[in-house]
Please model this.
Amino acid sequence: MLSKSVQERLNDQIQKETFASRAYLAMATWAEGESLPNIAEFFYNSAEEERQHMLQIFRYINAHGGAAKLDDKGGKIKGSFKNVLDAFRQVLELEQNVSASINEIASWCQQNGEHATYFFLQPFILEQQAAERNIGEILTVIERMGFEPRNLFYLDKQFKKINQQESGE
Ligand SMILES: [Fe+2]
Model:
C-alpha cells in the first residue's frame, strides 16, 4: 500500500500532467487559428501523451490502495502566443516544470525508501529527458527555418515529418 506522503506527491503530479495536457490543447486551438495544421497536430498528440501520463499515475495510485484525485488547482492556461517561437518556448518551460517535479518526487522516494514508486517513475524521468531534447531540436528548426509569415507554410510542413518521427518512436 502506498504511504500517505507518496500518494500526496503523486496526486500533485496528476494535476501537473493534467495542466500540461490542457495547456497543449490550448496551443492546438491557437495553432488551428493561425492555420498551422501540422503544428496543431503536434499539440494534439502532446495533449494526449500528457493525458496518458496522468492516467498511468492515476491507475498506479488506485491499484496500490490509494485514492487518485483530479482537482482544479492546475493554474491558468495560456491561449495566445506572439508567434511559433514564443509558443515553443512556452512548451519548453512547461516540460521543464514537469521534469523538475518528477525528479523531485523521485529524489524524495529514493531518500525515503519508497523503492517501488521510485522504479515506477523511471520511464517518466527518461521520457521527460527525451521530451526536453525533442523540444530543443524543434526550437533549432524554428530558428533556422524562420517563423515570419512567409516562412510559416514550410515550417508547418516540417512538422509533418516531426509528427511522423514522434509516432514512430
Ligand atoms: Fe507528462
